Model the fold of this input.
Amino acid sequence: MRIVLKGTPAARGMTLGRARLVQPSILAVDMRMLEDAEVGPEIERLHKAIDTARTELRELRGKLHGALAREVGDFIDAHSLLLDDEELLRGLDDLVSVGHYTASAALKMQRDRLAAVFDAMNDPYLKSRGEDIDQVIGRVMSALNQPSSREERKLASRVGEIVVSDTVAPADMAGMAGQGMLGVIASAGSIYSHSAILARSFNLPMLVGTRDALATINDDDLVLIDAELGEVIVHPTAQDLARYRQWQRQAAAEGRRLAALATAPTLTRDGAHVRLYANAELAGDITLARARGADGIGLYRSEFLFLRQRGLPSEDEQFAAYRDVVLGMGGLPVTIRTLDLGADKADSAGLALRGEENPALGVRGIRLSLRYADIFSVQLRAILRAACYGPVRILIPMVTHLGELTAVRNLIKKAREDLARQGQELPERLDIGAMIEVPAAAISVTSILAKADFLAIGTNDLAQYVLAADRNNDALDGIYDPLQPAFLRLIAHVIASARRAKKPVSLCGEIAGDTQFTALLLAMGLEEFSMHPGQLLQVRDRLTKLDCAALRRAAPRLFRAHTRDEVEERLLEVVAKQEGCGEI
Done:
């Protein structure tokens, strides 16, 4: 019988294959209390399982080569560091030796405790890092309860199969992709998870949040992932299969057509030039950005350097990472966002802050950096050194008022002086930009522009702050909507203010890479988009079909709309006149 399950696309596309269920976190937990004589052997059993997990990760690391070794290796190293975390290991030992819990119970209790901490985080990217804890402890649980877990995982990644699991660890994602895995259906997970990032890099269709997938799908079921519509079809019909084959033909033809755009300038139908930049975090993102013809890196997330290891990265470590990105872009501009962490994750980066009830509204972004000016100065010096190898800009996250930019400029001046005393080469110029993601900064953007050389609008956070709606809360889907008129007017205000000041402004949130919003952003006057590199060609193609001048003439009517439905209807009318279709 045909069954349809809904999920959230983490990596788009369609694929057909046999299901292989992998349930690393659904394992037997022995909740009995240990006798005194059992404690010693149980601790040995726990330590052996941890050692087995370490060995598995080390073996996976050794099998990686080339660009994959660097990209996936970072994730494996992060998991290996967690297995060496003294606090985690001490907590496990105490639960067994003092609490007399079994090893499996101790692992479950630690996982549940840490999961609660990450679930309480508001930042969606940092919240998704909780999956690392879950996956690491799940790997130890597998080694503890299933000695043949490695063999079973190999079976779960046979050629031609679609993995169905709660989540998939990045290390396993790499191994499975190398053995011919076709796609992933995850009952949990986030589009911001490491595994989702890898799935996009590997072009593997992936759905997350596919509820009831593990309860509904059986091993060897024929399943069709439609990560364009966000659907899993179990036991697809002949009609479904025909639609899939048609999609394959269209995707192949579309891929060939879009590939030709990689070397073409981005021009609208009426000849307006638009710059398309890539968001980046991994080495593979840089490679893909170059291959897809990006005009540069519009957002390089530096926090990954801090999260992938215990303790703080040194100035030389940061410099090497930034330099590699700059060199990898071959002379194209690179915008490096300074550390964007909150108090909820600061301890992982070696920063001690008291816990906060609402980290999204707490000490994060530039607020955190200014509080730890000595650590921030290390990052600034590393960026200044890297800027000698190509054009670099600094982007400051979570700016609220002008005083923060003044403080940043003073710290950069001091960093220059420190490097000059050391005889270090310095760039002639280093532009400093403000990330507009706090409503106060958006409203008072004209004053921000007095100290900022450029702006970057972060619509993901700005939308949830303006609309007072957590974008990860399914119950608020109707409220968290980028088409809400109040939100659109605020973005338009920021863009118009930057244009009047003759300063560059880009947009680097999710909607920048969503072709449904391309016409709307163009109507606002946006000329710089920054997105995941996998979205560059689709957005470039979309722009070539739009008349920029006509859209801007229609803008006043669009922004007089009172509801999101009115915005959508009016935009459809404008675009339909241009290209004879009804798609936004």
User: Anything to note?
Assistant: Confidence is low (pLDDT under 50) at residues 147-159. The chain has three domains: 1-22+156-262, 27-151, 263-579.
